[in-house]
Specification:
Number of strands: 0
Number of domains: 2
Strand content: under 5%
Oligomer: single chain
Number of helices: 6
Radius of gyration: 24 Å
Helix content: 55-70%
Shape: elongated
Length: 191
C-alpha cells in the first residue's frame, strides 16, 4: 500500500494528512520505524517522564501508610482485650457493641482492606515509576482507591457509626485523581 493510499493510522485509526510520515495523534510512524516525539504546536505533547514524579511520591506515601495502618489494625485485632473494648465504648458512647468479637472483627476487616489497598498502591507506584505498564498502573491505582469503601461498610455494619466516612471519601477522591493523572500521562509509558 503506498503513502497516498494509506489514509488512516494503523495504531490509533486517526485520519492521516497527505504525505504524513507520522500520525498527528499518536505519533506512530506511517511507514514503520520508531515513534517520533511530539514537536509541532498542533498536536498534543508527549508527557515528560518527570510529569508523574509527584504522583509516584503521593502513591508511595499512601501505600506505606496503608500497609502500616493495616498491620496496626491486624495487631489490634490480635491484642484487643475486653478492658480495651470498654474504654472504646466509654470514649464513643454512640457505639453499640454487643460483644468483643464484633470490634475484633472490625479491626481485622479494616486491617485486611488497608493491606490490600496498600499492596495495590505499591503496584501502581512501581509500574508508574518504571513507566512499564500503563494499564496495570491505572487499574491498580483505581482499585486501591475504591477499596477503601470496604472500611466504610465494615465500620457502619459493625459499630453503627459513620466516623470514617469522610476520611474514606477523601482517600478515594485523591486516589481517583492520581488514577486520572496516570491515565492522562499514559503515553509516557513503554506499554
Amino acid at each position: 500500500m503506498s503513502d497516498e493510499e494509506r489514509r488512516f493510522c494503523v495504531a490509533c485509526g486517526a485520519l492521516l494528512p497527505p504525505g504524513a510520515e507520522f500520525c498527528p495523534e499518536c505519533r506512530h510512524p506511517v511507514n514503520g520505524g520508531p515513534r517520533e516525539p511530539y514537536s509541532d504546536g498542533f498536536s498534543r505533547p508527549v508527557p515528560s517522564k518527570d510529569d508523574l514524579g509527584w504522583v509516584v511520591t503521593m502513591i508511595l506515601l499512601y501505600s506505606i501508610v496503608a500497609v502500616l495502618g493495616g498491620l496496626m489494625f491486624m495487631l489490634t485485632y490480635a491484642a484487643l482485650t475486653p478492658e480495651m473494648i470498654d474504654q472504646v465504648v466509654e470514649m464513643i458512647p454512640e457505639v453499640n457493641v454487643e460483644d468483643i468479637d464484633s470490634i475484633k472483627n472490625l479491626c481485622l476487616a479494616v486491617g485486611v482492606v488497608f493491606l490490600i489497598s496498600g499492596a495495590l498502591a505499591f503496584i501502581a507506584e512501581y509500574t508508574t515509576r518504571r513507566r512499564t505498564n500503563a494499564n496495570l498502573a491505572i487499574a491498580s491505582c483505581a482499585l486501591s482507591s475504591v477499596s477503601v469503601f470496604g472500611i466504610i461498610s465494615a465500620d457502619v455494619a459493625t459499630l453503627g457509626v459513620v466516623s470514617d466516612v469522610l476520611l474514606c471519601i477523601v482517600l478515594c477522591v485523591v486516589g481517583l485523581f492520581m488514577t486520572y493523572k496516570i491515565y492522562s500521562n499514559r503515553l509516557a509509558f513503554d506499554s
